[in-house]
Design brief:
By secondary structure, the chain is an alpha/beta fold. The protein is 45% helix and 14% strand. The longest helix has 23 residues, at 148-170. Residues 40-65 have a biased composition (Basic and acidic residues).
Length: 1076
């Protein structure tokens, strides 16, 4: 008998036999070296297999393995497992020598093989084919070929295995849940979901409201952490509450249930919940395209629904703001609230935000159909942790984020706007104890016996679904019809009990679905039924829990045919209700047939996976499941039961919160927060200065066109400045106090033809050519260049151009640029990175540099930079004795340019605006000068940069950015900037920058320059200007003038922003309402 037990142990260790054959029972077993062999699901299955092996050793009094072995990574291919296999093989060989029976040795050794096919071959059973599901036992001819000893052993093995499986299912306690460490109990958890788990009604006679807690997956998940983490639940009640009752309802929910209601009007709720969430997001997330029309009315995307969705999310954000305390964790749920994370992040920078999706996330191509997809993704990327049911859903989300401008994706998460959002996979579960309690109740046991008597002699197949087109109920009925056609002998002993819970009965599509299901049920029963027997029992209503659990326990097969489902917990419920044998109706557990499009299919490896769209294969799978022998069913049930029992809803909640705590506790890079350009302070400094330098980039800074900024198209690359921009530049240059320089990447003949006013300095090809203000001559940064290098670079760029649709090559005197702004947003940047690597390898020994610009890769001469060019322009404002800054020394200009203009007074105002990555070098250029200047003089405390709290008195006076004096020269005599100069550097856009300030759009910069163009000096008296020119020597006398000038500037800014007219309308409207 000991030899028999050893043989059984060898079978139990076999992971492929326990887990089934891959994604479908019709596939061949994968070899151990297959890429999927080490997937998380298969590792979990191997852990369950080893645990089952340990439990059986305990049952037979064998040495118990160390419990830590069962909690390891589950890699049975490691040295320890191989050593066990060798010892087992030696023990079998010794046993064979003692018995001295060669035929026995022939049958025992194949039991050590890994695949199920080898195990079946060892038992001499025929292959288990779906086309012949009835032959699953040993043939009589094979039995006759065995001797008596072999037959006896075979019978003993089968009987012992059956007994061990039943002991494991009924008496062995499953592995304890791995309880993650919870967060600090002092921090609260704020749960935010679309609906509160509250049922309510109003007594019309007394006007009193009564509330009760509902059940559900989220409630179950929180029950496991209720004692460890205090939490608040925020959500919508599902109906409009009269305004006079809202305060009463809010107080009662807060006092009795710790809930905070969100009140939505009927119109907003209908557009937010029904129209946008359920009619747009739900179909797309379940791979149902948006229809252009439906019967009776057009079904186009309505932006009013999108506005309602955003407004509803803002209402939820306001509710969170009311209860939020520093340190709280906020957990947002599902597709209804996808804008909420960014709304919370904008107000609470350090808020710990998690978001979980309870549905599938579609592929990136499917998601692109959503007109507001980018805005929704940006809303989600405000969260610290984004959770999904499966790895596929997470992978699809990352691919969709790759198309968001400025987003950097990786398998671990997405970085956007200087914030990293981690991504995790958390398959949800159920509460097993709840179903076991219902199953063991007297009511359920009584109902089970009644159903056994009613369906005696029948094989019962059960389906439990919500009446929804994603649940695949028509596919299930078609498969049943096909099964009865292929297996006519089963027409009288197989019954399908289909429970379809009504859902959204007022929606036309769901009404049509219900009518179609009714028609199919009638057709099947009419074709295959008799006066006393109907193959399909259809229940179109909700079923009591005890009734449902009894049907689960009775069913021989559970058929789940979702065509797309986030998780589908019906499969988990069926597994738990099969933990008790339904004798005498059936010996042993039933079988789970699960759609491969359900999220649970990636976790429940013991199920038979099917494709609902393949009707014939589903019919064959049903025949296969109904004919499975007891041993196979018990193996599958053991594996399924262990997973469902340990991966519960409570475990899911703990896992997510633990990972959220880890995500927010990771050290993050210190990122300097972007500060918006203080428009009022800039204009005040502009007004009181006498010698100004304004350097403005053209592409992406003055040109309000993101496509043109990258130069992807011929039209965008050659777009001239708009008339008002040209007029603005020329007007600013007309002021004798101003020196205006425009920097462009265009060729000199192009930019020169646009700006013919010689008072404007122009820089072409990013610094290679330049024309100083009031000068007709174009100068070149470096001379005697050899253009032969282009013969090396152009073929490489041409190679990538031919293979990247939408890209083009732009040839200039100083550079070759490859533009990819009109290519695919994922493929284009990938090709650009490959090109840059190839170019750097080829050009490493040439005086060239490869530069990544916005939507372009550029090869240009070394040392031709904007920084060198700006230093050339500043030379007219400083003596020649000033040393070159460290940034200029690194740029290695190949030529010392000549000074063309006579020296000018030192600058007291400098403004530079740009948007490219290469502009950071200029931003650092000013930063280094300012750091050196601080050594000469301690700066004053900088004021607030907020427009609303700005004060003009010395508000933006910065220390002179001068280097240390050299050759005995004083600090004042060596700098182009005066000691009290005002310096502003501004980056256009929201990306990382070294600039002092930023603006979101070029139009914001143009608005500020228009104020300067109007002429602040004309709006002030000479006395006001003189008071602003001084550094506050007589603060009392100057205070009134400064306040008056501040008011003047604010009025101009407000007028250009449209605030003046709006405020005037609001005042007049208020007076009208008051009069009424």
């Amino acid at each position: 008998m000991s030899d028999d037990i050893s043989n059984i142990e060898a079978i139990l260790v076999d992971e492929d036999y326990l887990n089934g054959a891959g994604s479908s029972d019709m596939e061949r077993p994968r070899p151990r070296g297959h890429a999927l062999a080490d997937s998380p699901v298969r590792r979990e299955s191997r852990r369950a297999s080893i645990d089952a092996y340990d439990a059986r050793e305990d049952h037979f009094g064998r040495a118990n393995r160390d419990e830590e072995d069962s909690d390891c990574d589950g890699d049975t291919e490691g040295p320890a497992m191989l050593q066990d296999d060798e010892e087992e093989q030696e023990r079998l060989e010794q046993s064979d020598e003692e018995e001295e029976e060669e035929p026995l040795q022939f049958h025992l050794r194949p039991l050590m093989m890994d695949s199920r096919a080898d195990f079946q071959s060892a038992l001499r059973s025929p292959p288990r084919s779906l086309t012949s599901p009835g032959n699953f036992t040993v043939d009589d001819e094979d039995v006759m070929e065995m001797n008596a000893r072999e037959q006896e052993l075979l019978v003993n093995i089968q009987e012992l295995q059956r007994q061990l499986s039943m002991v494991q299912i009924q008496t062995d306690k499953p592995q304890e849940e791995i309880v993650p460490p919870m967060m600090d109990a002092r921090h609260r958890l704020i749960m935010v979901s679309n609906r509160l788990p509250i049922s309510f009604q109003r007594n019309e006679a007394t006007g009193e409201w009564s509330f009760s807690m509902s059940s559900g997956g989220l409630v179950t998940a929180l029950n496991g952490i209720r004692d460890q983490v205090p939490f608040i639940w925020i959500g919508w009640l599902g109906e409009e509450i009269p305004h006079e009752d809202q305060s009463k309802v809010r107080e009662k929910l807060a006092r009795e249930f710790n809930c905070v209601p969100v009140f939505l009007s009927k119109e907003i709720a209908a557009r937010y919940y029904n129209d946008f969430s359920n009619d747009i997001l739900w179909p797309i997330f379940h791979y149902v395209p948006l229809p252009l029309f439906r019967a009776g009315s057009e079904k186009k995307f309505d932006f009013r629904q999108w506005d309602a969705y955003k407004l509803a999310n803002k209402r939820f954000a306001q509710a969170v703001h009311q209860v939020y305390r520093e340190g709280d964790f906020v957990w947002v749920h599902d597709y209804h609230l996808m804008m909420l994370p960014s709304l919370l992040r904008s107000r609470h920078t350090h808020c710990k935000i998690g978001w979980f999706l309870h549905t599938p996330f579609p592929t990136a191509e499917m998601y692109r159909m959503l007109p507001v997809g980018k805005e929704i993704l940006e809303g989600l990327l405000g969260a610290d942790l984004l959770g999904f049911h499966t790895y596929d859903y997470a992978r699809h989300f990352i691919a969709a984020c790759a198309r968001v401008p400025g987003a950097q994706t990786s398998p671990k998460g997405v970085e956007h706007d200087d914030h990293f959002s981690a991504i995790g996979v958390f398959p949800i579960g159920i509460d097993p104890d709840h179903f076991e309690h219902i199953l063991n109740s007297d009511v359920t046991q009584k109902r089970v016996k009644e159903l056994q008597a009613k369906f005696a002699g029948y094989k019962v197949v059960i389906g439990v679904d919500r009446m929804d087109y994603i649940k695949g109920i028509p596919h299930k009925l078609l498969a049943m019809e096909r099964f009865l056609s292929l297996y006519p002998e089963r027409c009288k002993d197989v019954i399908l009990i289909q429970i379809a819970v009504p859902s959204r009965t007022g929606v036309q599509e769901y009404q049509q679905l219900a009518a179609s299901v009714n028609e199919m049920v009638g057709r099947i029963n009419g074709r295959f039924g008799t006066l006393t027997h109907s193959p399909v029992h259809y229940i179109h209503r909700s079923v009591a829990p005890s009734e449902l659990v009894a049907l689960y326990n009775l069913a021989d097969v559970c058929l789940v045919t979702s065509i797309r489902d986030g998780m589908n917990l019906v499969s988990h419920e069926y597994v738990m209700c099969q933990s008790q044998s339904c004798e005498p109706h059936r010996e042993g557990p039933g079988v789970l047939i699960l759609s491969e499009f359900a999220g649970s299919a990636q976790s429940l490896s013991g199920a038979i996976r099917v494709n609902p769209w393949n009707t014939t294969d589903m019919a064959n799978a049903l025949g296969y499941a109904l004919s499975l022998p007891l041993m196979e069913r018990e193996y599958r049930q053991t594996n399924l039961y262990r997973y469902v029992k340990t991966h519960t809803a409570s475990f899911w909640g703990r896992s997510f919160l633990t990972d959220l705590e880890d995500a927010v506790s990771r050290p993050r890079a210190v990122v300097r927060k972007l500060v918006r350009l203080p428009t009022i302070e800039v204009l005040g400094a502009y007004a009181r200065s006498q010698h100004r330098l304004l350097v403005l980039d053209y592409e992406g800074t003055l040109l309000d066109d993101p496509i043109s900024a990258g130069g992807p198209s011929q039209h965008g690359a050659r777009a001239p400045p708009k008339p008002f921009i040209k007029r603005l530049i020329e007007t600013l240059a007309n002021d004798p106090k101003n020196t205006v320089v425009l920097v462009s990447a265009h060729e000199r003949n192009v930019i020169g033809s646009w700006l013919t006013d010689r008072r404007v300095g122009v820089v072409a090809e990013s610094g290679y050519f330049y024309r100083l203000p009031n000068d007709d001559e174009w100068q070149v940064m470096t001379e005697d260049t050899d253009p032969s290098w282009k013969k090396v670079v152009r073929p490489i760029m041409q190679y990538f151009t031919e293979r990247t649709p939408g890209s083009r090559i732009d040839s200039k005197d100083s550079a070759l640029a490859w533009h990819y702004g009109e290519t695919d947003p994922i493929f284009g940047p990938m090709q650009a990175r490959d090109m840059q690597v190839n170019l750097e390898d080829v050009l490493c020994n040439l005086p060239l540099e490869v530069v990544q610009g916005p939507n372009r890769v550029e090869v240009r001469l070394q040392g031709v930079t904007k920084t060198v060019l700006l230093d050339e322009i500043l030379k007219q404002y400083r003596p020649a004795s000033e040393p070159i800054s460290p940034v200029l020394r690194e740029s290695k200009s190949p030529r010392q340019s000549r000074r063309k203009l006579p020296p000018s007074p030192q600058l007291d105002f400098l403004f530079y605006a740009g948007n490219g990555v290469e502009d950071d070098e200029l931003f650092l250029y000013f930063k280094e000068h300012m750091e050196l200047a601080r050594k000469e003089e301690v700066p004053q405390q900088p004021p607030s940069t907020s427009d609303s709290s700005a004060i003009y008195a010395d508000s933006c006076v910065l220390p002179a950015p001068v280097p240390p004096p050299t050759n005995g020269a004083s600090a004042e005599s060596t700098s182009a900037l005066s000691k009290r100069a005002n310096v502003f550097t501004c980056h256009i856009g929201a990306s990382k920058t070294e600039a002092m300030f930023h603006l979101e759009r070029p139009s914001d910069l143009a608005r500020m320059l228009r104020v300067a163009m109007i002429g602040l000096s004309q709006a002030m008296t000479d006395q006001e200007m003189s008071t602003l020119t001084e550094d506050g020597e007589d603060k009392k006398s100057n205070g009134k003038a400064k306040k008056q000038q501040q008011s003047t500037v604010r009025t101009l800014v407000d007028m250009l922003n449209g605030r003046y007219l709006y405020n005037a309308w609001k005042i007049s409207r208020g007076a009208q309402i008051k009069a009424e």
